Amino acid sequence: TPPHDPREDILQAYSLYMERKRGLAPSSIASHVWFLRPFLQELGIATNADVARLSRCEVARYVERYAGDSSATTARIMCSRLRVFLRYLHAEGFIAVDLTATLPSIRRTGDERLPSFMPIEKVQRVLDCCDQSTATGRRDYAILMLLARLGLRACEVARLSLDDFDWRVGQFAVRGKGRKIATMPL
Prior knowledge:
Layout lengths: L6 H14 L5 H17 L5 H5 L3 H12 L4 H20 L28 H9 L6 H15 L4 H5 L6 E2 L4 E5 L5 E5 L1
Antiparallel strand pairs: 1-2, 2-3
C-alpha cells in the first residue's frame, strides 16, 4: 500500500466541514478537493503547522502561476475554491490572518456565456432523430424531452429512478442542486 499522505487528513477535515456545516453535496466537495490537492502539494503543506505559516505571497504566487495556464472559467473556479478554503482555515483558527483578499475576483465576460436557448426548429430536428421504434430510441427521446421541455439539467435526468415517478398522480420527483427535491408533471 502507498504511504499515507498527511495532506489527506487536512482535506478530509475540510470535506467533513463542507458536508456538515455548509451542507454541500459529495460532488461539490469533490470539486473543492480537486482544486485544493495541487495547492497543498505545491506549497508543501502537509500538517496544521504548515498551514499556520501560509502567507499572502505564497497564495498570490500560486494563483499567478496557475490561473494563467487555464481558461478564465477554470481560473475563476480555482480562485473561488481557494477562497472558501482560506475562509475555512481562518474561521477554524488554523491561520491567524484572513488571506482571502489575496485572491482576485475573475469576472465572466459577456461573450463567454452559453446560448440561453436553442431554436425550436433545432430542438425538433434532434427529437426527430430518435428512432422511437426501439427501446433505446424511446429512452433517448424521453431524456431529450426532459431536457428540452422541462429544462432539467443533465445530472438531474441522470439521477432519476423509477421510484421517482408517481404514475397515478402524473408527477415525478427531481433531485436538484442543494439537495432540493422538486415535483414535476409527467
